[in-house]
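User: What would this chain look like folded?
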Amino acid sequence: MALTPYSGPFGVTELRHLLRRSLFGASIDDLNHFAGMGLEAVVQELLAFTNNTTPPVKAYSSADPNGVQDPNLIDVAVQFGQPWYNVVRQMGIPPNPIPKRNESLRNWWTGLLIGQERNLREKLTLFWYNHMPIQVNVVFMPESSYTYCQLLRDHCKGNVRALMSALSTDGAMLIYLNGTYNMASAPDENYGRELMELFTLGEGSGYTQEDVATAARIFTGWSVTEGPPGATTLPTVVFNAANHDQNDKVFSAFFDNATITGQATEAGALNEVAQFVDLIFSRPQAAVFICTQLYRWFVGNDITPEVQADVIEPLAQVFRDEDGSPDQIATVMHALLTSEHFFSPDVRGCMVKSPLDLCIGWIRELRMPMPGPDLFEAQYNVWNRVRFLCEDAAQAVGEVPNVAGWPAYYQAPQFDLTWVDGSTTVSKMAMRDRIAIYGFSTPPQLVLPDNRNLQFKVDFVSVVSQFSNPSDPDALVQDAADLLFGVPVSPEVRNQLKTQFLLQGQVSNYYWTNAYTTYVNDPNTQDPAAAQVPNKLRSLFNDMMGAAECQLH
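Assistant: Here's the prediction, encoded as structure tokens.
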């Protein structure tokens, strides 16, 4: 049974719902870009992307004895402003550049979210990261972590078998799940267990403990090396045949008692991995499990028996039908995002925004200025600040809590209600105030003079200039609610917002209309009411950003 295609109206409301789930935030610029396009055309564009990212660069430095920042005091093999991922670290020469490279990688990743193209690449990449994660600071090998990040981007809309096969010998994953210690003489079950339990089949799907032990033997023999201090090689995944279990691997009845013939060469060992991945995806549970995780990420957590039968199972069949396709996930996502179910009232505004959806969404929706690559030191400094805002709210880019990912996507029955835990309330208030009120400023200690003491703040007059009729306070509040809120609010609430923040207790709309018109015509006006227009808008938006309705999408 195929998913029923959506046949209803596709206007601004439906477009905004689609973009909020596909991007981080849905700005008016996003809406204008897709205006007039039909659902099929929009989804096709959302899925039409490549991994064209540029690598992270050295924007870090170290302080000399006088406290002056100098990039030549750390990671000296890399020129300031140039990529580091392909430059050998000078091991044994302090200070250790690994922490700075790790930080650079995580800031770069945050910057990709902020500057995302209008497609699904970054949302899908983050999905796969949450689904089969590493922790950058645990791996502690930034070049390998970068390769892992790019592996996810390369495969995020592609064939899942190919992704899982590549992941199984990925350097960062080998380190994170103890693959480097997995040898024939002492098999380590960590990766083999998580591959089945968390990445493909799900706990309780039917595989046995003996299957876990047998799978561990398939993954023996792989490690990561970068040599001793003074080495001239980058971290490299290597295969040692002597450490690989070359005996046959026999699985349980769950896998139809399949046997994978043990092999002795690197090519043979890779073939064993591919055969086991094929074996996993020959089980129908794999398609159901992965499609369920996609549903939780993009649609919602309320998986009723009807949703299971009418959405998850048909989606899993699409997954199986595309088993050999290089565009497997693209086809699955197309079926989901163009389905009747995706646009049903039950799944609109039903998800609590993650800290990244909230923070990055605000930055994009409010057109917050950001330093460009010509100011790379300032750029990484601001990305770092954004990353910490999200990390304080319990969603750290590159540092999930554990191999299961963020609890909001697996911890029943709370699921996404985890994001509104009281422990993060203060952090979200700080996030809101930073974006709406204070903005970001670069410190005076930066290396490059033209990157110092810069200010990046939201211009709320510019924001509302995109609205349908910003001189009309009723229309302005309605447009602001449409932009920020995931669910409609009553006329009474909108009227209260208008009266309190735009009219400041006055009863006539003219009070705002006159002030706004005067200010727009002359931003340097001496008219007291008009001069307060930017502050009134800032107060209005700051209040709305703190509303419960702003937490939903």
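Residues 460-551 form one domain. If you want, I can go into more detail on any region.
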